[in-house]
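Thread: Newbie trying to understand structure tokens

Hi all, I'm a second-year student working on a class project, and my supervisor (Dr. K.) asked me to get a predicted structure for one chain before our next meeting. I've only ever worked with sequences, so writing a 3D structure as a token string is new to me. If someone could post the tokens and maybe explain what I'm looking at, I'd be very grateful. Here's the chain:
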Amino acid sequence: MPSSIPLPELLAPAGNREKLETAVAYGADAVYLGGTAFNLRAKAQGFSPDRLLEALDFAHAHGVKVYYCLNILAWEKHLPGVMAQLEQLGSLPVDALIIADPGIVRLAQKITPHIPIHLSTQANTSNSASAMFWKDMGVSRINLARELGASAIRAIAQSVKSELELELFVHGAMCMAISGRCLLSAHLNQRSANQGLCTHPCRFDYKTVAIRVDERTRPGEGLWEITQDEEYSRILSAQDLCLVKYLPWFIKNRITSLKIEGRMKTSAYLCQVVDAYRTALDDAASKNFRPGTYVDCLSQAATRPLSSGFFCPRRQIFFTPQSEPESIILARIIRRVNADSWIIAVKNPWDVTGPVAIMAPGLKRPVLGPDLFRVEKETGEGVTQAHPGLNYVLRSDHPDLAPHLFLQTYRANRT
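---
Reply by user tm_fold:
Sure, no problem. This is what the structure looks like when written as tokens:
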């Protein structure tokens, strides 16, 4: 990869403080987060004004940018609250606002003209004319529609050139609707996806009773027919997006930012995904790109098939979960107590008598043998079993241990 071409920004979700710390620890260049209202993940914990200031200080101290989501498609009743939130944000060092609604773009231009505006994928920008329209409205970055393929993305990038920054989703859940504009949740559960309240009915289990569709000019042909046994299935559920194999393409085409979906995902999921993409970007820069290694790591976090989405002319499936992952996230390091003591939060049942792997950034997985660590209750009593939801003390002086990193079960056959 020519050294003159800059690497894209790696943009990760931060649904709460723990996820923020995880994204930063594993190499995100920027994070996106929201408050407690007016963003498309209303069920995420979000950040209150006080917590937001702490989050900004933490991220900026580590050289990480923070983009704030105000990306609902607003109703009239939302506007006073949106304006009040913009007034609060005006005095905070937010690096950009992520907005979808043109009315909120207009309000932001008036109330917070000093904060850059990034256009959400919800705006469904699918051509260069639309991109330039938004530039005229004061937008500095566009997250392009998720329905675009590589050729369409390249054409837009070549047309707007240096006039606009372009951002793309490269990993995570995909919506069956156009750029997330879905009415299923509102119809079934009176919770609007476009107000941040999606209940994800496309992921529900359904059972077909009788479905056969004939088209008017083809009577009797059975244009579409679904047959199903007695079990329920997820007939509407989209595969997850995974474009890690194509990162050199994004670099070559000078895409500004690569975005990971998942403010509602766990921090254990986030550490694996951010680590894989950070390592892949750095490897591409050093001409040591190893796509199989990254997909292997991402498969450990996958609960649905990983695919190329709309990016390729024909969709590619890279991984389909058929069993439990070979490695399980065991614990997260919260903070260091002294030279050889760490407070850890256990995530899954853990037999501490066997070896464990440290999830060090760069997809490094140094092994802690049972003779190299001890797990204790906070009272100092040693344990052989650690239980999820509880904090313990890990005693070890291994040099790869650090705050906000994770421990996982040891895989003897790791490559």
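A couple of things are worth pointing out once you decode it. The first helix runs from residue 17 to 25. The chain has ten helices and 22 strands. Feel free to ask follow-ups in this thread.
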